[in-house]
Amino acid sequence: MSEQPTAGEVAHIDFDDNGLAAELSGSHDAHLAILEDALGVRIDPRGNRFAVTGAEGARVRAIAALERLYARLKRGEAVAAEDVRAAARNVDVMKSPEAVDARAIKTPKRLIVPRSANQAAYIDKLNGSDLTFGVGPAGTGKTYLAVAHAVGLLLSGAVERIILSRPALEAGERIGFLPGDMKDKVDPFLRPLYDALHDMMHTDYVERRIAAGDIEIAPIAFMRGRTLARAAVILDEAQNATPEQMKMFLTRLGEGAHMAVTGDPSQTDLPSGERSGLADALSVVAGVEGVSEARFTAADVVRHPLVARIVTAYDARDRKRRQP
Predict the structure, then answer these.
(1) Distance between alpha carbon 82 and the CA centroid of its chain, in Å?
(2) What's CA 280's distance to the chain center, in Å?
(3) Which of 242, 139, 144, 149 is nearest to 193 (CA)?
(4) pLDDT at 276
(5) 173, pLDDT greater than 80
(6) Per residue, what are the HEC states of the chain?
(7) pTM value?
(8) How far apart are CA 223 and CA 48, in angstroms?
(9) 130-154: string of b/e by CB count within 10 Å (b at 16+)?
(10) pLDDT tens digits, residue range 92-148?
């Protein structure tokens, strides 16, 4: 139960489990240090009571972040440094536990909740649209959340299968130069999709569903001529699809299907001068009924905090280049 500040510089918050309170603090109070640096407060733990010192607005935000993180621990979820950074960065989203929980996606291995306002809006759009574009820099969770949404639909019976696809083109290398048969050639490009599935479902279950055809992971070229009905369909790294491939993929959408297209237009590996299918599609289908678009920025990066700073630095460089 928190003691909300009304005057003065100190507020207190009490937790009912000393062990969880210690986990909340982190090793050597590392989690509290993250909140202190991000929110401009001082947090002094005394057993299960935390004293929060700072400006009133900062105290309220710090208490909201502490309460939300503690609620995660009570549900049996782990709290790591990246979760604390996300809580500090997006505390306004986390101050409404009911809204966050309404967007939670339960998978066999973990409960997945949005870590930013843009992630929350993205989940809303995935739930409300037949076709959703998730666009933004690396590390913002756009692909991970799309896979989580697809897993939730499959486990609930809303769809009969999951189809995950990517263009088999990375960093200028085409699959014909790679050793092995076709599966050996394309698997490295599709590995991030396998990793996301295994992070949410047990390996043996994933393999059984793949063997049964309920989960399919394949390059975009394998989608030609098909109708993808009653399926959760994801195209990842869509900035590496050509406009022709993108049109082909989008028109595969069948009855009862949900489609998500994710990518970062600034990181295309297509040959110089070739237009990205993602950028082309965003300009063509904008405003079409049933289509939604979620945009992410460096503020939504949930990987190492250095990734957000790197993205910001590149964005600043690109803005300077566009100036006359």
Answers:
(1) 13
(2) 23
(3) 144
(4) 93
(5) no
(6) CEECCCCCCEEEEECCCHHHHHHHHCHHHHHHHHHHHHHCCEEEEECCEEEEECCHHHHHHHHHHHHHHHHHHHCCCCCCHHHHHHHHHCHHHHCCHHHHHHCCEECCCCEECCCCHHHHHHHHHHHHCCEEEEECCCCCCHHHHHHHHHHHHHHHCCCCEEEEEECCEECCEEHHHCCCCHHHHHHHHHHHHHHHHHHHCCHHHHHHHHHHCCEEEEEHHHHCCCCECCEEEEECCHHHCCHHHHHHHHCCECCCCEEEEEECHHHCCCCCCCCCHHHHHHHHHCCCCCEEEEECCHHHCCCCHHHHHHHHHHHHHHHHHHCC
(7) 0.74
(8) 55
(9) ebbbbbbbebbbbbbbbbbbbbbbb
(10) 655 555 555 578 898 998 888 888 889 989 999 999 999 999 999 988 999 999 999
Q: Among 194, 208, 202, 203, which Cα is nearest to 236's?
A: 194
Q: Which residues pair with 173 in a beta bridge?
A: 170
Output the pLDDT for position 75. Answer: 83
Of 174, 233, 162, 238, the closest CA to residue 200 belongs to 162
Q: How far apart are CA 20 and CA 28, in angstroms?
A: 14
- Which amino acid is residue 70, in one-letter code? Y
Stretch 302-319: mean pLDDT: 77
Q: What is the rounded average pLDDT of the residues 236-244?
A: 93
Exposure of 34 by Cβ count < 10 A (0-12 exposed, 13-18 middle, 19+ buried)? buried
HSE, side-chain direction, 13 A CA sphere, residue 36: 14
Most distant CA pair in the chain: distance in Å?
Answer: 70
Amino acid letter, residue 294:
A
Tokens of 170: 């990375």
**Model confidence at 13, in pLDDT bands (50, 70, 90)?**
very high
Degrees, nearest 5: CA angle 256-248-229: 15
